[in-house]
Amino acid sequence: MSNKIRKKLHAFIIENCESEISSLSDNTPIFESGLFKSVQIMDLILFVEEISGKEVDVEGLKPGAFKDIDTIIKNFVETEKKN
Amino acid sequence: METNINTDKLDQIVKRLCRVSEDNYIDPFSRLEWPEELDRDNWFTSPELISIEGTPIWDKLDESQRKYLSFFEAIGFYSINIHGERMLIEGVASRLYRKDKYAVTPYLHHFLDEENKHMIYFGRFCTLYANGPYPEKKVKFDQEYEEGEEDFLFFAKVMVFEEIVDIFNRRQAKDDRLHPLAKEINWLHHFEESRHLSFGREFVKVLWQSYSNKWTTNGLKRIRDTISSYIEATWKEYYNPSVYKDAGLSDPFSIRKMALKHPTSITRRAEISAPLIKFLSKTGILPNAEELPI
User: Fold this and answer.
1) How far apart (Å, rounded) are the C-alpha atoms in residues B110 and B26?
2) Which of A46, A61, A71 to mutate to test binding with chain B, by most B CBs within 10 Å of its CB?
3) What angle do CA A36, A37, A42 make, to 5 degrees?
4) Residues of A in contact with B141 (CB under 8 A)
5) What value of ipTM does the predicted structure carry?
6) Is residue B92 predicted with pLDDT exceeding 60?
7) Which residue, B284, B246, B257, B252, is CA-closest to B74?
């Protein structure tokens, strides 16, 4: 499940990024490296909701919650497993 | 370095707007009548302003489905207003009585008061008749600013948000097809917002003139990019998958993507944004504003 989502996230970032990507790993910072502008956070949140089938509660969240693909998976996809 | 922002024109505007606000004070708790239930066989958003109007999905809906969608579009629109005004109130409150804001502080008090009232109307509608406002899908990023940049961007963003919202309000305030409560909320918002718009444009112009020649080339580029992206992001909020889902439409995320790209939507966004784009271009804030992908 999370591998499929990981692949979809990769594809989404490549499709919507603001600059040329030489390499994109699961640990590439999405915003800090300038791949995405801060105003694209809404697009990313809605995409995470779409592929995970769960609403993302953004209240109180910091941008670090969307730092890279690994962090997104950990925060918004694998949370149910832990519970 | 401290910049004293106080031009004659801005000073006159502040005095005039304060007087008008005092003469037209509205009590938000007694001004509107709130029925226990709403007759949902009504329009709550003007059909021409509904985000999917003119798309193939809209064409497939019958009138009762369109009216049903218009209610959730109204909740979506009021939610955008609530979140935008919350950002505005936070920012304005933190600028009250700052030395470089003495000249405009008298009006900032009215600004705050009136924005708070608008949130009461919008919030009450969303909580009485739906499950509250839709959540905002934004996260605040920390950023380093050059001198005056943070203030300029704050008021420029407020202006972008309010200029777009006001066109929706102005049109819906005159639309007799709308449920009377929805029509009245739009009228009340426009009535007070029109003052905020004159203040906003003048203040943004003054801030631009005061600081833009001090910004570095990189800073100026970043500021212009931020405003351009903010216009685009503001419009994207009008295409809310939760609205489509609550209205019973299937595959709400695909609907959003389709509607954002549809020529009718693009034309509507360009038409509604035109006065804002003209202002940004004429003032030199965004010299190529007409070429922005909206």
Assistant:
1) 11
2) A46
3) 85
4) 31, 38, 41, 63
5) 0.86
6) yes
7) B246
